[in-house]
């Protein structure tokens, strides 16, 4: 597997996604043909996340090579991610990154910009040109849960423990997780899960649609590999067009969705069989 340099990705940016720069912030990123793998790699701290994690994720998104179709997001060690680094709650904060205290002293515009930048680390995982797959074992708490929710699919180990802990800590989930949670499990269940900050284990996750598949911890890598192969077996452009249709479906009327299907299909048929432009 090659270290991902990808100087000119989809965004046309030149981003530093060198192994060294990412290792400093506890991330690993590898590209193997059409598959990119992002690993949260601070297992001794249960892959706790910082603002640097989120800007690293955003840089990866900006520099993702065009050929990549599947992005796997995984965590090293016993937990997928224990959420935001708890040092953020201390007066000292995370070295070089501040604390919630320093964030609280920002003006409204700077605060808005800070959170918006953090959200960029999550948003790109929904792009139509890729399918993102979270491989989740052990704890996925707070920001960890939201990172799993940012992915299109979640394959989980039977020891998974999802928890939206933010409300228990006086915060709201603000890393793009609330919308996919409601879309996946419905408003009532999302309310229950968030406002109790309770743990959702594997069998419930599967039953309510949070997880596509539950496997043993030892079988997680193989299950993700199999899913990746299945996803790569379909036509690249048709897959992207279909994902656009599916993502837009909830916001359209049936008539609008039918029109969107016709428009996408016209492009597909022309691309496949030629015809008048
Ligand atoms: N931030 C910083 N360090 C963490 C975090 C975290 N979120 N979670 C775990 N760690 C560290 C621990 O301090 C410990 O470090 P040490 O070995 O230097 O003492 C190490 O990771 C291992 O943690 P343990 O608690 O010993 O691991 P265990 O497997 O028993 O428990 C668990 C894992 C349940 C995830 C527990 O660590 C935990 O509850 N962590 C905090 C979860 C949390 O409240 N996250 C914030 C959610 S809100 C949000 O994300 C916005």
Account of the 3D structure:
The protein is 43% helix and 16% strand. The protein is of the alpha/beta class. It contains eleven helices and ten strands. It folds into two domains: 19-233, 2-enoyl-CoA Hydratase, Chain A, domain 1 (Alpha-Beta Complex); 235-277. α2 (51-63) packs across α4 (108-123) and α6 packs across α7 (187-196). It binds acetyl coenzyme *A. The site of acetyl coenzyme *A has 18 residues, from β6.
Jot down its keywords:
277 residues; alpha/beta; 2-enoyl-CoA Hydratase, Chain A, domain 1; 7-stranded mixed β-sheet; 3-stranded mixed β-sheet; 11 helices; 10 strands; 16% strand; disordered N terminus; binds acetyl coenzyme *A
Helix-strand blueprint:
Elements: E1 2-3, H1 19-24, E2 27-32, E3 35-40, H2 51-63, E4 70-75, H3 100-104, H4 108-123, E5 131-136, E6 139-141, H5 143-150, E7 153-157, E8 161-163, H6 178-185, H7 187-196, E9 199-201, H8 202-208, E10 213-215, H9 220-232, H10 236-249, H11 254-273
Helix pairs in contact: 2-4, 6-7, 10-11
Bound molecules: acetyl coenzyme *A (ACO).
Acetyl coenzyme *A (ACO) is lined by residues 45-46, 48, 78-79, 82-86, 139, 141-143, 165-166, 169, 171.
In short:
The protein has 277 residues and is α/β, with parallel strands linked by helices. It has eleven helices and ten strands. A seven-stranded mixed sheet has the order 1-2-3-4-5-7-10, sandwiched between helices. A three-stranded mixed sheet has the order 6-8-9.
């Amino acid at each position: 597997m090659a270290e991902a340099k990808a100087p000119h990705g989809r965004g046309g940016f030149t981003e530093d996604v060198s192994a060294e720069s990412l290792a400093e912030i506890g991330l690993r990123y590898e590209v193997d043909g059409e598959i990119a793998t992002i690993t949260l790699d601070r297992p001794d701290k249960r892959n706790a996340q910082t603002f640097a994690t989120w800007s690293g994720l955003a840089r990866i998104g900006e520099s993702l090579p065009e050929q990549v179709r599947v992005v796997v997001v995984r965590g090293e060690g016993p937990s997928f991610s224990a959420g935001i680094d708890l040092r953020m709650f201390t007066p000292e904060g995370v070295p070089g990154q501040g604390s919630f205290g320093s964030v609280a002293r920002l003006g409204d515009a700077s605060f808005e910009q800070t959170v918006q930048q953090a959200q960029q680390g999550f948003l790109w995982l929904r792009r139509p040109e890729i399918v993102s797959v979270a491989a989740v074992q052990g704890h996925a708490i707070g920001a960890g849960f939201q990172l799993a929710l940012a992915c299109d699919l979640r394959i989980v180990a039977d020891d998974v423990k999802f928890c939206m802990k933010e409300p228990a800590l006086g915060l709201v989930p603000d890393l793009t997780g609330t919308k996919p949670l409601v879309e996946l499990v419905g408003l009532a269940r999302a309310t229950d899960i968030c406002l109790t900050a309770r743990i959702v284990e594997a069998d419930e996750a599967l039953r309510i649609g949070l997880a596509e598949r539950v496997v043993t911890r030892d079988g997680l890598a193989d299950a993700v590999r199999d899913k990746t192969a299945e996803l790569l077996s379909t036509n690249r452009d048709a897959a992207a067009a279909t994902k656009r249709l599916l993502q837009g479906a909830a916001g359209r009327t049936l008539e609008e969705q039918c029109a969107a299907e016709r428009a996408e299909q016209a492009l597909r048929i022309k691309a496949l069989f030629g015809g008048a432009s």
